Amino acid sequence: MATKFKATYLDKQGHKHQKIIQAESEALAYKSLTDIGFSPTDIKPLRKKSSSSLFAPKVKSTDIETLTTNLASLLGNGVNLDKALGLLMKSADNEQVEELLQSLQISVRGGAALSSALKKHPKHFDELYIKLVELGEATGTIGEVMKGLSEQLKFKNQMQNQIKQAMSYPMVIVFVCIASLAFILKVVVPQLSSMLDGSKELPVYTEALLVASNWINSSYGLISLAVIAALIAMLFTSSQAFAKAFRSRLLKVWLKAPLIKGLHTLAEQSRFTSAMYVSLRSGLNLTSAMKLASNTLSSLSHRARVQMASKVIQGGERFSNAIEEANVLESMDIGYLEIGEETGDLAGAFDEVRTRKIEQFNLKLNSLLKILEPMLILVMGVLVGGVVIIMMLSILSVQDVTL
């Protein structure tokens, strides 16, 4: 079994370098460097880092996008695959990306095709990616295929970033609201409590406020909040089956919300049309393209519609009619596909549709935020303002009793 070694060596010009090497033994790792003219100065086994560490660098989707873009550029300029992987290793941003590239290079040097090497890393390369690379290898258009995949990954990452950036402001508002309430109950209300000690009868709302404050300031309350926070973090980050089931059910409920449903549908249609464009442009047949495109969808209902349309097409139905009957796309989109069928350029038709879908998604997202942001501010105002009003009414009630 191959072991990873961290090697320090001098190149032919005497410059010092470090890299990660996979070899059966330290001696073989040493030999792999000397065989290419390098002079090793230190080779030692690489310590394994816990994959569960929160701070361990990981291979992100943006890393795969960069890798694909650079590989497409190198292959398109006539650089052979082995050398291209070696160049990418030298420019890798973190150790995990370098290890991934080295694993691919070792497989390629062993005689495996790039698509076969990619199959060993299903976490980073999905079925669409591997299938299109395999097609590019068979047709001799691997450079063009990688370029198309780069565009697909760029689109996917841009959509994810747009959603994250769009939701960052509402999340800040929610955090400020929770922090404000916690500060009032933890610091301000206890001072109010000392003013109300001599009062025999207190309004119900005042008693409720004091109970909430006492609970938060007690050790039991702090422990309970810590347990609740840990449970929420586990449900949203754990890979356990029960956590995944919870997130799946929560997502189903969330996607049924009127404001979110339309946005999610546009996101799914954008993913489908983008995957179809890349697949057809790479030369994949229609049935295979439909299968791969359906696997890029996160919604089971949307995936089922695409699969149903694929079966209808296999039965001899016209493509645009099958898409329309399965309610995969809107009527205007079907018109583009009909023109694409007539001109023999379905890939171009899907390019037009995906551009429209991305524009619609951006407009819908911006509209949602314009509605969501003032709603959250209003809720924050009601909650924090309500607590402040209760405090003022409590003080006035005590003053009335004193008078």
Summarize the structure.
The protein has 403 residues and is mainly alpha-helical. It contains 16 helices and three strands. It has helices at residues 26-34, 61-76, 81-90, 95-109, 114-118, 127-139, 142-195, 204-217, 219-237, 241-255, 258-281, 286-294, 300-314, 319-325, 331-343, 346-402; strands spanning 3-10, 16-23, 39-45.
Describe this structure as you would to a colleague.
The chain has helices spanning 26-34, 61-76, 81-90, 95-109, 114-118, 127-139, 142-195, 204-217, 219-237, 241-255, 258-281, 286-294, 300-314, 319-325, 331-343, 346-402, and strands at residues 3-10, 16-23, 39-45. Mean pLDDT is 83; it is low at 50-55. Strands 2-1-3 form a three-stranded antiparallel beta sheet. β1 and β2 (16-23) form a beta hairpin. It is built from 16 helices and three strands. It has three domains: 3-45; 61-156, Up-down Bundle (Receptor-associated Protein); 167-403, no CATH class. It is flat. It has 403 residues and is mainly alpha-helical.
Which characteristics define this entry?
single chain; 403 residues; mainly alpha; Receptor-associated Protein; 3 domains; three-stranded antiparallel β-sheet; 16 helices; 73% helix; 6% strand; flat
